[in-house]
Amino acid sequence: MNRFREYLSSLAPLSDAAWQALQPALSERIVPKSGFLWSEGRVCQALYFLEEGYVRAFTDLDGVDKNLDFHFEGEVVTHLSSFAAGTPADYGVQACEKVRVTVIDRYGLFAAAKAEPELETAGKACLRLTAARSEEHARLFKLYTPLQRYEYLEQQRPELLQRVSLTQLSSYLGVARETLSRIRKRRAL
């Protein structure tokens, strides 16, 4: 959990008292490959800080998995609207390899933030980062061609190209696997 504390401290100053107030909301969890942080249709009751491993956010579209995003070590994963409003999530998050997460319980977090305002400040900063990443992701898919998306990943998110399978990556980019293979060949020349 030291990595999580460092992450929080990078967002806002964090006193020892605030860290201690947060302790009841924190737990560690190991999720095996193919296990879920939460499933589609279930309420997301926590924030998940990825200590080790990576996950995919996906939904089932007519029996076919559609990969929506990937999250790696050092990132917070949650379903913002489900977490905030307590509504069922419209996608699930699944471990792509063995994952170790720090789980930040929703109700425990809210209680700790009431007691220690600096936690609320750090929480808001975390949500701003999550929202900005979501906006960047939406812009990527609204404005860029598949080739431009791939080039963006090369520059901004190379871990996707290094760790994510070709099948999952093609689903994420919204192209057929064969199209992705052609893009990769073209980029390798």
Automatic annotation (TrEMBL):
<dbReference type="GO" id="GO:0016301">
    <property type="term" value="F:kinase activity"/>
</dbReference>
<protein>
    <submittedName>
        <fullName>cAMP-binding domain of CRP or a regulatory subunit of cAMP-dependent protein kinases</fullName>
    </submittedName>
</protein>
<dbReference type="InterPro" id="IPR014710">
    <property type="entry name" value="RmlC-like_jellyroll"/>
</dbReference>
<dbReference type="InterPro" id="IPR018490">
    <property type="entry name" value="cNMP-bd_dom_sf"/>
</dbReference>
<keyword id="KW-0418">Kinase</keyword>
<dbReference type="Pfam" id="PF00027">
    <property type="entry name" value="cNMP_binding"/>
</dbReference>
<feature type="domain" description="Cyclic nucleotide-binding">
    <location>
        <begin position="10"/>
        <end position="106"/>
    </location>
</feature>
<dbReference type="InterPro" id="IPR000595">
    <property type="entry name" value="cNMP-bd_dom"/>
</dbReference>
<keyword id="KW-0808">Transferase</keyword>
